[in-house]
Amino acid sequence: MNILISNGRVVDPANRTDAVQNVYVAGGKIVALGSAPDGFVAERTIDASGLVVAPGFIDLAARLREPGFEYRATLESEMEAAMAGGVTSLAIPPDTDPALDEPGLVEMLTYRAKKLNRAHIYPVGALTIGLKGERLSEMAELVEAGCVAFSQANVPIVDNGVLMRALQYAATFGFRVWLQPIAPFLARGGNAHDGEVATRMGLAGIPVAAETVALYTYLELAKITGARLHITRLSSAAGLALIEQARAEGMDVTCDVSINHVHLCDMDIGYFNPNCHLIPPLRSQRDREALCRGLAEGRINALCSDHTPVDDDGKQAPFSESEPGATGLELLLPLTLKWAGRAGLSLLDGLARITSDAARIVGITKAGHLSVGARADVCVFDPDTHVAVTRDSLRSQGKNTPFLGMELPGQVRYTLVEGQVMYEGR
Amino acid sequence: MNQLDAEALCRQLAEQIRPHVTPATALVGIYTGGLWLAERLHKALGIQPPLGAIDVSFYRDDYGSKGLHAKPQKTEIPFNVDGAHVILVDDVLYTGRTTRAALNELFDFGRPAAVELAVLVDRGSRELPIAARYCAHTLPEALPHDQSLELQRDAAGGFTLKLTQRA
Amino acid sequence: MRNPQLNQHGELQHLLTLDGLPRDILTAILDTAAPFTEVAEREVKKLPLLRGKSVFNLFFENSTRTRTTFEIAAKRLSADVVNLNINTSSAAKGESLLDTVDNLCAMQADMFVVRHAASGAPMLIAQHLQNTGRDHIHVVNAGDGRHAHPTQGLLDMYTIRHFKQDFTNLTVAIVGDVLHSRVARSQIAALTTLGVPEVRVIGPKTLLPTEVEKLGVRVFHDMREGLKGVDVVMMLRLQNERMNGALLPTPQEYYKIWGLTAEKLALAKPDAIVMHPGPMNRGVEIDSAVADGTQAVILPQVTFGIAVRMAVMSMLGSHLAPDSTGTRIHA
Asked: What is the ipTM of this complex?
């Protein structure tokens, strides 16, 4: 279908565009910006006056809970959430059940997602079989089946010897390895940041050392093996400092942070709110500020939702017994806008963290920008309207967000995937 | 109530009780006004057993709706209640519920041979079949329910009766 | 978010933790407990306050001692008491905490006394009761994980007030495994709220929680230094499991460095009192001679514990049911 998105404020970080102009879509691609191509007849016109037209957002971590955790959420429900959130590309962590360690599983998942015809999925394969940290997975086969990177999700490899071999093997092919810095024995038994709040609440603490010690190890092993390393979900100022030190020594390493850690700290646990039970834990005020600043200055490369839907039963338990994780696909845009506003960043720079910068980390070239010839993944939104986050307003099956009851800026009006309107808000 | 001389009433009450006092007669004052009164009577009448003090907070029948009163005091009955001749002393007799609560509490200490009630003023409006054996003054007309009548004791220990309008 | 212990009028609806409990409420509980101590000396040790009310002891963690004192307290208030040891029944079958609570509410429970291994469990129950409109049911925390043991903290404060009267000129030392101790956390909260000018914690680094000084305490590792001039010594129980968790080498070494002996106690003030929440590990955290000595007030703690629990249950149990008419009843 030929679509004209007219009169919107086009904000495209990749091309450094921030201007009011028309966008012309045909054949699933962006065919022109500004003036119509010859012979273009719009079959549908979307009036984007007063709205922002941005590339569809790219989320580095969204758990769609299939296969295996269908009682928590399904592809259908979570894809609806993605569309409502303007998220047109999602990277999927490998901690499904079974883990994404088999090409057949990856193909099936990709096939199912394609049939649903909603967002594009970019599966991240399991680095080791079953995420057990013992045997390497068939990385080459998995990449052929569609995996964009390899990870252990939240299950760190205990045996550093295996970790080194895994990095080395991935480096053979130049495959990306995404690692969550968790030193298993330092984090053992803990569920909150080891500090004043955990002490007062009587919660078992996870010290910052659990992140820094793991980071030291990963950075050192990546340096030795030449692996392409991306660090996921930073939680501490000290962790960020280590990454910067490695970069200063010449290493090419990227990192991301979740929307939760940029807005919240351990004090937000309040009276044991299980929606604040997260991996990694929410750390101190100072850590949060350092992460915000790091993201604003681009030292942290991307922002993601770390979408982890948990059913009510999983959350209605005492803090330490609750399932960790927060839902977030539909909050990626609002929380990015809120963070950018607070950090004094332009819309262009703020949105970069969930478009062009995120695309680079996944290795997507055809989307994440609104250049002529790009895949027509677009999000049209109203940056000024505030929306209340309620159980009813969330389309995800997971209602587990610490932002419940809050009003956040940014309302998605249209989401296009490959030139098709997949979502119309209001 | 300015016409009522609490000191005079107290003396009258003592004289009412005096003919009936025996070495076995024990006094128990109900916090707070009743206890002040009982302290005076105990001395004036030469009562032999030590003075008892009873706080009825834990026995009030309005606990379910009104809750625990602020700052309950300690009940102390320093004599053997079994077989005792007890005179309960209170400042004002009204519905009779305080007396009933005091009786309930007293019986948890033992089985007295007899219990009598002595009050300074009877303000009427009884809600239970309770009567004072010794009473210094009965008001001719029952007081309205939104008014409260209480014994006051000044720094020198002098008694007055205070009438307050509840908001 | 409103403190879940207080209702919209600022009155105590549940007793969940001493942290954040206003000073005047704390003091009122101590004041109310005093007259209850006398009941134990009566012929008939019963008061009618909770007659007809059902108190459910919901113990997810085994504890005969604490459960027994709550049971005695409730029965002395004439309540009907039901004891539930959950670890042996439904929870083992996978019934969730809140499902268990809902089932018991359907049996007309008026009060839950809850002990649970997870910090925050009683608060979760209290919030659930509020969310489901059951404002007339009260929760008393009998100990949750490492978080709080408010009635223990209260009876400890009552004991200190009984022997020392004025909180504002005391030095108090808490000795032992503060890291895992809900008792210590409640004690620290109460002591600081009541204005004790110096609260010390004494123990090895492995048993003191991170940033504990931010709770308003002075940290000591040297017990002799820490006990100098102290008015109150509060010993904590050392659990044997800690020895296996690479937190401590042996009970013998622990006793040598942090065990309370007469020699170490002599460094405190001569009239210092020694307290212990029980049960004691004689020869591990405390010497038998000290435990049985003149400065120990461990048995009075137990007696006061029943009075304090009676006071708490009475103060909570006095809240208005939703359909109360509230007519004033006079003397």
From this structure: 0.91
